[in-house]
Amino acid sequence: MKPLTHRSFERSHAGQRGAVLFIALIMLVLITLLALAASSSSVLQEKMVGGLRNQQLSAMGADSALRGTESWLWNLNFTAAAGQPLPPCIGSSSGTCVHRPANDGTLKSMVQSFRTSKSWVNPPAGAPGYVHTLTGLSGSLETASLARQPEVMIEDMGPNVPPGSGSQTGAIDSELRSQAGKNNFYRITARSQGGSRASTRVLESIFSSSDLTNTGTNAAAAP
Predict the structure, then answer these.
(1) Residue 164 within a domain
(2) Residue 23: CB partners within 8 Å, gap ≥ 6?
(3) Which pLDDT does position 167 carry in this prediction?
(4) CB contact set of 208 (below 8 Å; sequence gap of 6+)
């Protein structure tokens, strides 16, 4: 057997150091890839959580405006002397009013747009303002602050009468529209954004209350 010389030993040692360097580089690349994958996953999860929170805020904002308007509508007080608290919107009506469908049941384009548009649209004239401020909150409520104040629209869908009472043509019963002492169906549409303007939620409810478009139908207060 040929003895190992000093020169051949040096060559073998140099070859071993080169292999270790190569393996170390591969390990560093793998660790880097794993770190990048973990970072990307964390960023994606953070975006998903933020999007879900934004959707929840927009839903809560719309629901708050919807329930608040139902309560406001239910508790409206009026007398014959005070006039109509919630008259129908006609032409360029000013103040709070309710929108009515046409006799064939079709809606005004601006009413339909507020109900169905994916992008943000302001309510048509006559919309009541939601009294509770949900923007610019601070302190412990800061995380619940919305990008903008929710908007609400009210439609008068006609009298709430038992089946078989009246002609019931389309969405409006013209035969009973002017009769006093009746309850009406009101459709309330609430639109809200979340913590940012990336999320918009629209909610609706059908609410029955006193006919508030006929002066003096209730001499004391709405039930």
Answers:
(1) yes
(2) none
(3) 44
(4) 160, 183, 184, 185, 186
